[in-house]
Design goal:
- By secondary structure, the chain is of the alpha+beta class.
- The chain is 23% helix and 24% strand.
- It contains twelve helices and 17 strands.
- The longest helix has 17 residues.
- The protein is globular.
- It starts with 9 loop residues before the first helix and ends with a helix.
Length: 423
């Protein structure tokens, strides 16, 4: 994911803690994409959208995990793949299917040439579906998916889905009264070190820090940066009006600044200080400060107790740096613009990026077809997804309280299961 800090649902991100040990925290590796602006976020005291209950479709009996070469362990193929039901009667015909078709269409150029880490497909498998998608009418999107795809279940099929969104906060390109929270560019002295260059045992691991004389040391933690350790270096990209709103934007990793003149400035992730991410929601729940742990609960407490809230936010040592974003729109891990209410983040070892996913959950809002166009540090394993809801107050409200369970089916080009099962 290019614009996302974590690829983890907002409520989950605020609760999770990243791994310790000085390695770049997975929850801070990738930022979050977003969608078109619709409205300003609501203020303190807002509540999450009331869930619409739904009865999920039962999962299928799981296929036993298969024995695979070392390079394919921890993938969908190794987890076991079961043939799914006929999908024609399962596909909704509403706006989500139409949005999913559009999202699939723009994913095709990358999908057909991308190496599939899951082991489920080859680039050429997608040729027929992609050729048809290029001119298929949006009005009959459900028919497209039923004609060119078959369903499979990976592992036990038990899905867990959270949500993310693109925050909108008040900001200014220049410092002025009411806009005094600095939003920093990435400092030139923030250095990434690939530890695999020094030891095979550390292959795939990296750290961030800075050089101090002849030593490489950790970069400034959040509390020092907030206190002004970067002042006077000309790193201010813009200024936020509210430190709490900016904290939440950092958790998401990208967002929109609503400027005093009515304009909008989009900013996106441009690095993180290498410090461990600490989910303040867990801290607050453990201390009895909040009950549910949703974004709304956390924000309400931080606003009601500004001094204590500032200290709690500083317990998360992670700090995110930003750059201004221009162009067609926010981009996910697949390298294409993500689509509100059609894009999910998934683990590419279990879901081919660009593939459709059919969700049936105990919450109605996410049910239907989504396209796996994104990834995230905390989105790991089969059937773990993070749904993208766009920007604006409604997106924020839904994503902030999204936590749904049920079943997931992966849609693959027809003939994929026969090849995988050797039939």
């Amino acid at each position: 994911m290019n614009l996302r800090q974590s690829g983890v649902g907002l409520a989950a991100a605020l609760l999770l803690s990243a791994c310790a040990g000085g390695l770049i925290p997975p929850s801070a590796e990738r930022p979050a994409p977003g969608g078109p602006a619709t409205s300003r976020p609501s203020s303190a005291g807002e509540t999450a959208t009331r869930p619409q209950p739904s009865t999920p479709r039962p999962t299928l009996p799981a296929s036993p995990p298969s024995t695979q070469p070392v390079e394919q362990q921890g993938t969908a193929v190794a987890a076991g793949v079961a043939r799914g039901p006929d999908i024609a009667s399962l596909l909704p015909s509403g706006e989500r299917s139409r949005s999913a078709l559009q999202a699939f269409r723009i994913s095709c150029p990358t999908l057909m040439r991308r190496t599939d880490q899951s082991g489920l497909t080859r680039g050429s498998d997608w040729n027929n579906a992609c050729a048809a998608a290029s001119s298929w009418p949006q009005a009959s999107a459900a028919e497209f998916f039923s004609r060119y795809f078959e369903a499979v279940q990976v592992g036990d099929g038990a899905a867990f889905v959270t949500g993310y969104y693109e925050p909108e906060i008040s900001g200014s390109r220049t410092r002025q009264r009411g806009y005094e929270v600095p939003i920093y560019r990435r400092p030139a002295d923030l250095i990434d070190v690939d530890l695999g260059q020094f030891s095979e045992a550390l292959k795939g691991k990296s750290i961030r820090g800075k050089v101090n004389g002849t030593k490489f040391i950790p970069y400034d933690e959040r509390a020092r940066i907030v206190a002004g350790s970067l002042d006077g270096r000309g790193l201010e990209l813009a200024w936020a009006a509210d430190p709490v709103e900016f904290f939440f934007l950092q958790v998401q990793g990208s967002g929109r600044l609503l400027l005093p003149d009515g304009g909008v400035m989009r900013i996106g992730y441009d690095g993180q200080n290498g410090r461990d991410y600490t989910g303040i929601g867990k801290l607050m729940k453990d201390r009895g400060l909040i009950q549910a742990g949703s974004m709304q609960d956390i924000m309400q407490y931080l606003r009601a107790h500004p001094a204590e809230g500032a200290a709690i936010m500083d317990e998360n040592k992670s700090f995110v740096f930003f750059r201004e974003l221009t162009g067609a729109g926010p981009v996910g891990a697949l390298g294409v613009a993500v689509t509100p209410e059609a894009t999910v983040a998934a683990d590419p070892k279990y879901v081919p990026l660009g593939a459709p996913v059919l969700l049936s959950l105990d919450r109605a809002e996410p049910n239907g077809i989504w396209i796996a166009q994104d990834t995230g540090g905390a989105i790991k394993g089969a059937n773990r997804f993070d749904s993208f809801w766009g920007a604006g107050a409604q997106a924020r409200s839904i994503a902030g309280g999204m936590s749904a369970r049920g079943s997931a089916l992966l849609l693959l080009p027809i003939g994929s299961y026969a090849r995988l099962s050797g039939q």
